[in-house]
Amino acid sequence: MPRIVSLIASATEIVHALGFGEDLVGRSHECDYPPSVTRLPAVSRPSFPTAGASRAIDLAVKERLAKALSIYEVDPELLRELKPDVVITQTQCEVCAVTPEDVERAVCQLTERPAKIVALEPNRLGDVWDDIRRVASALGAPERGEVLVTSLTRRALDVASHAAVLEPKPTVADIEWVDPLMTAGNWMPELVEMAGGVNLFGEAGKHSPWLKWEDVVDRDPDVLIVSPCGFGIARTLEELPLLTAKPEWPRLRAVREGRVYVVDGNAYFHRPGPRLVESLEILAEILHPERFTFGHAGSGWVSRSA
Fold first, then answer.
1. Where residue 76 sits, what CATH number does that domain have?
2. Taking a C-beta distance cutoff of 8 angstroms, is the pair 48, 60 a contact?
3. Which of 71, 73, 116, 189 is most buried (most C-beta within 10 Å)?
């Protein structure tokens, strides 16, 4: 069986969902699901402190990128010791994971054992399904990829078909970063629409864009979802005062009507893997609580007014 190193959290989840979890020998520093993967050695690390506030993290990332420096570093010595046959990374986002260039530099030192590099590139929901197939093929089990994609798409379409007939469809602003403000792009606008909402900002298939607070105030969404990339619920609640302190906050329709929600963006919305279906379920619960109850409340999302 192949020896696998995953350098992106979503790929680790894909590997497990395909039934190759026991073949993982290494992971990235961000891989934490399923919980059993935390026992594996981490072959990457961030090249800057990640415990600061949103603004500090954003400035650190921009400084590294401006100098053409990697956001994350790979440990070539550990990679050599692990002797992987397959190394999985991504090209979608420089901030989300180790890039193929980082991996290639490290793998070049694996002179005794060449490894196959699988670079994922999820921009839309369909790309995520294609990436699952790509991983399955690289691991010599394309049929497992088809079975998994069929199961995930069936679940997603079941939610979408029930949500499609529901009215009214609330307008939604999904905040992917708090300071500076960013809204969600890529697959998230698709998920919002599938869950029975009207996405106000961000475009399907395109990177998440920066957002002006004035635009949020002007569009005055029915529902405001706060899901910073890489942050869990507790961390996001710590950052929320950056929004609630704004003078226009109390006047927003979503605030007045108690429809502000904090989501575990680290575990769900921003991991382009199998749990995007759970992300869709979370959105459906939030947007149409009278119709959908999947049991994610309290763990996947919380109401700001609760």
1. 3.40.50.1980
2. yes
3. 189
| pLDDT confidence of residue 31 | 94
Check pLDDT > 60 for residue 71: no
HSE at residue 244, side-chain half, CA atoms within 13 A, is 14
Indicate the residue among 102, 121, 140 that finishes a domain: 121
Rounded to whole angstroms, the Cα distance separating 60 from 91 reads 20
Which residue range is the domain that position 220 belongs to?
167-303
Cβ atoms of 58 and 52 within 8 Å: the answer is no
- Distances, alpha carbon 1 to alpha carbons 10, 25, 60, 212, in Å: 21, 12, 40, 50
Q: Average the pLDDT over each of 19-28, 105-114, 131-140, 230-239 and give the range with the smallest value.
A: 105-114
**Paired tokens of 95:** 């901030």
For residue 290, CA distances in Å to 39, 233, 261, 293 come to 41, 23, 16, 8
Identify which has the larger pLDDT, 77 or 50.
77
Q: Are strands 198-199 and 171-177 parallel, antiparallel or unpaired?
A: parallel
Number of Cβ atoms within 10 Å of the Cβ of 77: 11
Retrieve residue 150's tokens.
């069929």
pLDDT digits 0-9 by tens, 123-132: 999 999 999 9
Q: Please provide residue 199's backbone torsions phi and psi, each rounded to the nearest 5 degrees.
A: -75, 125
Q: How far apart are CA 304 and CA 306, in angstroms?
A: 6
| Cis bond upstream, residue 247 (ω within 30) | no
DSSP secondary structure letters along 94-106: TTTS--HHHHHHH
Token representation of residue 289: 């609580």
Q: What percent of the chain has pLDDT over 70?
A: 84
285 and 181 within one domain: yes
